[in-house]
Amino acid sequence: MPGYCRYLPGKRMMDNILIVMAASLSVLPDKLTTGSFPSISGESSIFRLTVTLAADLNAVDPIVEGIMQMVAHMPCAEGKGDAIHIALSEALANAVVHGAHSDPSQKIECEISCDKQYGVMIVVRDPGHGFDPAHVPSPLEGENLYSHHGRGIYLINQLMDEVKFLNNGSEIRMVKH
């Protein structure tokens, strides 16, 4: 778990995460450049949240739950909460395990933007060297059907409206309209 979270018991840890996350909320700048994704202007944006977490799988669920408590009440996420929740969980877990090799001294960055016009945009960055998503085997073929892992990218692609890998695969950008 990141920093101070190791010293806080369950509910108190979640309350403190939410306080830190709420303090991080800010109005988007005039433009957020998103590669081929639409630029999100300050006028239509509802919020932008940036969270940095230690590359520890135990940190993923509390962060996702805290983010979802905020995002669930936003009009940009109305009726899309389950898809956003699963995609965010999978992207963060992949960043921790594959990008940072579960090394808690490494940091994972996550940005969530909510925009009235374009919906929810999630960016997850890890410190790894990346990968080629075209070489990830399909979880729907052969013995992969019975594997206990390897479905995260497939799920993200099925649940989100736009998915793009940047920086050699060490960054994923996802949009849910």
Describe the structure.
- With 177 residues, the chain is of the alpha+beta class.
- It has a single domain (3-176), classed as Heat Shock Protein 90 (2-Layer Sandwich), CATH 3.30.565.10.
- It contains 4 helices and 7 strands, in the order H-E-E-E-H-H-E-E-H-E-E.
- It has helices at 10-24, 57-71, 81-99, 152-159, and strands at 31-32, 40-41, 45-54, 107-115, 119-125, 162-166, 171-176.
- The strands form 2 sheets. A 5-stranded antiparallel β-sheet has the order 3-4-5-7-6. A two-stranded antiparallel sheet has the order 1-2.
- Strand 4 and strand 5 form a beta hairpin.
- Helix 1 packs across helix 2, helix 2 (57-71) packs antiparallel against helix 3 (81-99) and helix 3 packs antiparallel against helix 4 (152-159).
- The radius of gyration is 16 Å and the shape is globular.
- The model is unreliable at 1-41 (pLDDT under 50).
Topology overview:
Blueprint: H1 10-24, E1 31-32, E2 40-41, E3 45-54, H2 57-71, H3 81-99, E4 107-115, E5 119-125, H4 152-159, E6 162-166, E7 171-176
Antiparallel strand pairs: 1-2, 3-4, 4-5, 5-7, 6-7
Helix pairs in contact: 1-2, 2-3, 3-4
Percent helix, as a range, is 25-40%
Count of individual domains? 1
CATH H-level superfamily: Histidine kinase-like ATPase, C-terminal domain
H-E order: HEEEHHEEHEE
CATH architecture: 2-Layer Sandwich
The fraction of residues assigned to DSSP E strands is 15-25%
Q: Termini distance?
A: 32 Å
Look at the structure and give the CATH class.
Alpha Beta
Largest sheet: 5 strands, antiparallel
The 3D shape can be described as globular
